[in-house]
Amino acid sequence: MARRPLRTVRQREGPDPALSENQNLLAEQRRALILDEVRRRGGVRVNELTRRLNVSDMTIRRDLDALARQGVIEKVHGGAVPVVEASTHEPGFEAKSALEPSAKEDIARAAAALAVPGSAIALSGGTTTFALARHLLDVPDLTVVTNSVRVADVFHDAQRPATGRGARPGAATVVLTGGVRTPSDSLVGPVADRAIDSLHFDVLFLGVHGISAEAGLSTPNLAEAETNRRFVRAARRIVVVADHTKWGTVGLSSFAALEEVDTLVTDAGLAPELRAEIEEHLPGLVVAGEARDGTDDA
């Protein structure tokens, strides 16, 4: 019986130094690294990712499936490419609510700790600020200005007495701006802009469509960009609440430079190298959820 020829076995390449210690990463952190690679290189192959991240093919395929469900990549034969959205595309509130819910909850909890009792704060529209509003119900004596219909409803429902019970003690006094309603249920336009121009806030909690070192904070909606500019000018301190998938996304209109932000509150899915880049541009970075127990699904 003929013997099979021996195959030459190549020495396996070690993990990329820039992506070291990846076996110990949580799934969310690993997926953030994969997304960054896809966006930076315009596409990746599964076998490249298994080498660079030092995990199995099956783990990488699960990661790509998860990222595809989020709508941030498109799976192709043997790998993935980025989903290129039009810079004017603006998802509705319900669609955005389904993205990164656990990350948004971590961010909301951490951001609420930055609110000082008795202060005047502003909350822009967005699903992360909506999550934040629920945590702010426990901060006493707040005055809240918002252009978000959803955020206003959170405080309104908390202040409304239930049967046999009084209003929630921490519920805030809320001022809702006027304006034209966007797909994300924010009020924007000249009426909202004039209302904000006459006000002054201790802290602005700002949700964003996209954030990057080059474009700063951006949105696909021109009117919302102008309203957000007014919010930024009216605030003494600016806290951006944005999950890791917002980094590298650029909308049609920029409304603030990254250097104008005092603190970015994000989640543990943000890759370490991106954290270092962000810290070069702004003084405060809060990474929420890192102490949360979790297991890698590798």
TrEMBL record:
Cited InterPro entries: Carb_Metab_HTH_regulators, DeoR-like_C, DeoR_HTH, NagB/RpiA_transferase-like, Tscrpt_reg_HTH_DeoR_CS, WH-like_DNA-bd_sf, WH_DNA-bd_sf
Pfam hit, one: HTH_DeoR
Keyword annotations from UniProtKB, A to Z: DNA-binding, Transcription, Transcription regulation
PROSITE patterns: HTH_DEOR_1, HTH_DEOR_2
UniProt source species: Streptomyces badius
Tree of life domain: Bacteria
Protein name: DeoR family transcriptional regulator
ATP-binding keyword on record: no
Domain HTH deoR-type intervals: 27-82
Region annotation Disordered: where it falls in the sequence: 1-21
SUPFAM superfamilies from the UniProt entry: NagB/RpiA/CoA transferase-like (SSF100950), Winged helix' DNA-binding domain (SSF46785)
